[in-house]
Amino acid sequence: xxxxxxxxxxxxxxxxxxxxxxxxxxxxxxxxxxxxxxxxxxxxxxxxxxxxxxxxxxxxxxxxxxxxxxxxxxxxxxxxxxxxxxxxxxxxxxxxxxxxxxxxxxxxxxxxxxxxxxxxxxxxxxxxxxxxxxxxxxxxxxxxxxxxxxxxxxxxxxxxxxxxxxxxxxxxxxxxxxxxxxxxxxxxxxxxxxxxxxxxxxxxxxxxxxxxxxxxxxxxxxxxxxxxxxxxxxxxxxxxxxxxxxxxxxxxxxxxxxxxxxxxxxxxxxxxxxxxxxxxxxxxxxxxxxxxxxxxxxxxxxxxxxxxxxxxxxxxxxxxxxxxxxxxxxxxxxxxxxxxxxxxxxxxxxxxxxxxxxxxxxxxxxxxxxxxxxxxxxxxxxxxxxxxxxxxxxxxxxxxxxxxxxxxxxxxxxxxxxxxxxxxxxxxxxxxxxxxxxxxxxxxxxxxxxxxxxxxxxxxxxxxxxxxxxxxxxxxxxxxxxxxxxxxxxxxxxxxxxxxxxxxxxxxxxxxxxxxxxxxxxxxxxxxxxxxxxxxxxxxxxxxxxxxxxxxxxxxxxxxxxxxxxxxxxxxxxxxxxxxxxxxxxxxxxx
Length: 591
Hints:
- This protein is of the alpha/beta class.
- The chain has 19 helices and 20 strands.
- A 5-stranded parallel sheet has the order 5-4-6-7-8, sandwiched between helices.
- α1 crosses α2 (21-29) and α11 (262-287) packs across α13 (334-350).
- The protein starts with 6 loop residues before the first strand and ends with a helix.
């Protein structure tokens, strides 16, 4: 029986000819090497006849062909259904991109049309598995096309991928598409484009249509954003726990040290470094999956003064403030807007390398219908930060908020990007005005917090100054520093390691007539009952429990909606003594 191999893989040919597999694939695609493709995997199989002809053409030795045994060519499996893609776009580049991405994949068939109405007709007659619709269609808008498709009975399981000119997830939600691509982000390597497209297809469409090769499954599993998001959140939580111990112990040590002592200066430097590390975790949270703001009424004057002092501590620049007398508080995540304004003040300082004056102004601003601002009508607080620096050329205006864009050497280009993201997540807006050689003003609009209603003649509530506090945290270092903080503040504390211990301790104290005034509950407990479940159990027998959520994993859904889970307040990690004091004082005054 003839044992000679009739078809060779690209790996076989590469080994025989001592060239790369990519070169073999390219020769096959150019028609220089002939053969077939595996209909399941799309792998190229070069025929013996074609390979011998190629080797003779270049005077290559035929030795080695005799050692390869025959392998069968897989036939098309009758139960394998091709994935059908329809592309509706007048853009030659986009159509070419999709074609190049899948040209070597026999599992996928692609149809192209340049008219939106032609695409709708095709979808109605023979719906594809995936419809890629271009925002640049001239005869119909994406939103109208999607609405028409949704009304079709034949729509069924068809997925719609909208291709926008620029990154804008809010616009996709308005259009009603299942997912999106952004043309300005499709300029990378072919593999990046294929990952973006296949990630959507295999994640949302195919199911039992296509059987993936093992390496494809593993690649998608390890590269999909959800996995990366979970991993980054886990790292962030661990990092914030460590930072809580460092930050908290430094704040305590400063309380016990003479300000005139050199040790105090060293502790201040360490505290500054800890604060910078804390700002980094806020920035990482902004870019990671989730990161929704934890909104509370926040007064701006003292916060802006503190941020400016910190940002300009080693600068030749100075700062002047102009605050309206009746300035409203903003409804915001204090940590996030702290980061946003820190970035803007730092940017202003960097625009004046030799130093200069930075002006910070804040006023109430009423936004009404018809104003040239992409904001809902209502009351806002407008904060303007002005430098007298080099200014920004007009051609850079559309780029300054892009990731990694910077005109400054040694800078990351992420500061303004994270600022823009934070402001947008707060339903706010940021405006830039600049003149080259004269300076730049960034104006931030943030929703104002509702006015506090003060009943005439009502006396302020004066509650307890100290209390009995139950603290649940699985990290020993965090428990230790919190215990020291409680002792310094004059509180009595009981510390437990997980939710089940917290429930038992709370019930015992309640039944013995010496209940806890406040419970501080860690959210994430990998090896035991977490804070959310423990809170549910405690509320079941004491609906009046006063609890504070404490966590370094700020991307959990419970964090942004902590009040709906029964928590009265939240203290994000890392925190230091004054932050803990502020939260406990507020809660105890109400008891």
